[in-house]
Amino acid sequence: ANYFSDFLQQRGANFHYKSEILELHKDLDNQETFTLKGRLPSRLPTFTTFDAVISTLPSPVLLKIEKNVLPESYRKQLSKIQYLGAQTVVYETTKPVLPRTYWLSIALPKSPWMVAVQHTNFVHARHFNNHHILYMATYTNKPLDEHLWKKRHLDIIWQHSVFIPYAQPLYTTDYHRYMPQTITPVPGLYIANMERTYPYDRGTNHAVVVGKQAAEKLSLFKRSE
């Protein structure tokens, strides 16, 4: 990731880390451009103008931040897209929890977790100060109770859990009817998010394909003078 970001910055790209996008709207003085209202790590607001925008956001999030950019018919189309949330937890331990297993799928009806991954059986513990990393996750539409993941044990050095509200789009039987395409009805606005990996499950390899598709479409974009 560091190599790739350095590569892009050498070619003029800018990265705004730990920053938040609050609003997307059309520029008041020039309807051909977009204005992004953001918030820097210092909490100060920032306004930046762009000729084109690629949204990698889940559609429910895009619908929250866009301000009169999308036509109503397209908003209705995107509003049909549903998501599964997910809860993840990472444990740093002195001993491996799964000594001989990397990936363990959990199919027990009463288990709150779907998978346990002993990451340090894939990437050696020497890269983590000789500690061991266990990752656990499950799909859920609301955060799990803390007692289901917060544990007290002598082997646990550190633990942290995160709830992700938009972890996986739901591919319903009629999903193909309202799946967003790379090109939107708004000139200069493109979509390259998880919803574009249909009919495949989300994955890094499919994300690369979606990214290339958006880059190819963007390379053909010309702002009207």
UniProtKB/TrEMBL annotation:
Single GO term (MF): oxidoreductase activity
InterPro entries documented for this protein: Amino_oxidase, FAD/NAD-bd_sf
Span of domain Amine oxidase: 6-100
Pfam family, one: Amino_oxidase
Record's protein name: Amine oxidase domain-containing protein
